[in-house]
Predict the structure.
Amino acid sequence: MNETECLTIVKPGQYHHFGLRNAIQNHFKINSTSNIDIIKVVIGIDGLPIAKSSSSQLWPILGYIRPNHNSVFPIGIYWGHQKPHDSNDYLEQFVSEAKLLLTNGININGSIIKVIIDGFSLDSPAKSFVLKIKGHAGFDSCTRCLEEGEYLRNRTCFPLTNSHLVKRTHNDYVTRKYEEHHTGNIISILSDLPNIDIVNTFGLDYMHLVCLGIMKKLIHLWLDKGPCEFARKPRSLNELARFKATEFRQILLYTGQIIFKGCIKDECYKHFMSLNIAMTILLSSNIDIKFINYARDLLKYFVQSFEIIYGKHLISHNVHGLLHIADDYIHFGSLDNISTFPFENFMKSQIQY
């Protein structure tokens, strides 16, 4: 049994490392390496319960090789009744192996091929955990800028100021320049990986930020008889509590522009449509920079108008994140290229509740 096959203690549970090298080699046993100069790996990390009746949970480290987002593979997996006490202990074997692969490449059929980690796709709580930074309820929790939150009406919110224009950098992170952004004196060992930019390599996952975050929030605000109360409630929303991310995505991009027209005030419909158009652009492929900038402007309008329509106390971490999500198109292309959808789908296929 080699080192990557050992079961190790990661307090308060156990961790098994399947291996990134093994996963890549297995991938290319059934996929051609022709015309591949660089192997681009996308990493997903998240925690999930495995039983409704206990605290038993898994924290898998998953990956896929671009462009095969439907071919997700496990790299390592933690099991315990709590999440790992220290994310660096949890990530240690992955980082040790990945450093070698990123430095030396990998031998596939006698050829050495360069390997890069092209992105990390995590929701906000998982990102906070692995990077050892403030969570979404923290005042200094934005991973992209220096916007500082406020506490209004029993919640943390992020009213728009010019601080969102001051961008965080990788060097800020590794030097802990802004200590209030961190949860302790130690940073993530992911920063040891060659050519990794902690700020820009971690995408803003639109599945959680926009679909399960903002789209769900908007509908609840309309249903709760707020300023955009439904004049008539679409029948499909009777099952809102059971909606999945894919259903919110469908409403956001396709059906919402039809079913909400005439159901909510024109001001609120126009506001929703700015999000619809911006996300349609950012989820398209090979878009010209002028359209990306247009999407960025629409999202800034959405955030500014959100405060006017609903109140600044409701500008959550997710709403604030819209100010930065267009930047991900520059780094990754379509936001589908850095979403957690492939990883969520993989885990659902592996675990039966």
